[in-house]
Amino acid sequence: MDISNNHSATTEHVFFFAVYQKLKTQKLYNVLLFLLSILVHPITYYFYQKRKQSQQYKQAFEQRWLYYEEKGLMAKWQSTFAEQELAKATFFHETVSEKQIQETASKLAQAKIQQSIEQELLKEGIEVLSYLEYFSEQLKNRKFLTFTFLPAALFYVVLLLYANPFLQFIIERILQSFIVIVGVATLVFTILYLSPFDPARNLLGVEATAEQIANFNRIHGLDQPYFSQLWNALSGLFTFDLGASFAGKEDITHSIANKFPITLEIAVLSLLMAIAIAIPVGIISAVRPNSYLDYTFMFIALIGLSIPSFWQGLIFILTFALKLQWLPATYNPQSWLSLIMPVIVLGTSITASIARMTRSSMLEVIHEDYIITAKAKGLDEFKVISKHAIRNAMIPIITVIGLLFGGMLGGASVTEKVFNISGIGSYIVDKQFIPDIPAILGGVVYIAITISIVNLFIDILYAFFDPRIRSKMKKS
Length: 476
Description:
Number of strands: 0
Number of helices: 22
Strand content: under 5%
Radius of gyration: 35 Å
């Protein structure tokens, strides 16, 4: 198969060529695509060298070179460069021999002739492509695509995925999330590794012998070097094999699978409650600024931001559980009523934050020229707010919601302790003073994974709400 031959337009397929041209401008993607197609490069490079050594380009180049010499251009340019070199040496008071000046002038003249000839041959369609340019040109060749599809299957899959700007956007966010998760895991492990707490001493007690402590460290791999322990921890995280905890020998994956859902459930319900209350309140406050409703809503929001969650939880228990006896004081998996107080306590500050951000964002939008114009044309105020203002005000609100949700997962431990909820937050708190490294690492990382998924969803919502982002994605 001679892949070096030119093909007519009927046999060309420019889809993969166009995507490859777009991605190869970025160094990271260029290296990735090269590695994914590594199996086809030897044969492609062979044909490239075969074409590069063709006589057509050599003969054309030599003929132009002789033409420039016969016309006396070589001598003329060499003389010009020699005068320039001499003038430069005189200006800087340098001592340069005539031989050095002539050698430098000769090199400059030859370089100029070579550049001129290459430009002329390029205009005439006679050129020597670099290997990467030659390889990208072969992606137009259907024969080349057919014979290389199997050995470079991953290469073509990446090109197919990245052909769609939305898929490219999602894939890049997933890769970024993966890097963040690895970074979080490494940071948490390093902090625990450097922690002054000794797991063996804390679990075995102060009366443990040196032999017992050494045996504990050997069993749990704590006697290994830092990088060996880090590798074992990271490999266990991404294979969902977290091993057993130091305390109780419980299976960590099973423990997290039992404890994480209740934390996630409370966080999601709190967030839904916050969105359902805060966004309408923020919109009303923005539409009627400095009114009685605005002052009332924002005052309540300020109180919600100021109340400590543990104090609010205790007041709720004293009032609604002990005094009024409307709700259970602690969490019971069999009773949905036991979720009401934790959800409200966890969602109070979130509701206040979203309400204030909604008001601020809406106030900024409703004073834009296009909103004023829409009102001036006689459009109903409700339609102007619902169809134009809210959609454009949602970007900063969505950002705040994503950030607050991450804070809810990380800060749920206080609420869980108050209401005796056996969730992932209280699980991490209980393990951190040992420190039970595998258990803590597993809990923190899987919270990070959840937050990364939420942030990915929020990034997708950006494109949904803002057409400018969709347009920028397509252009990029």
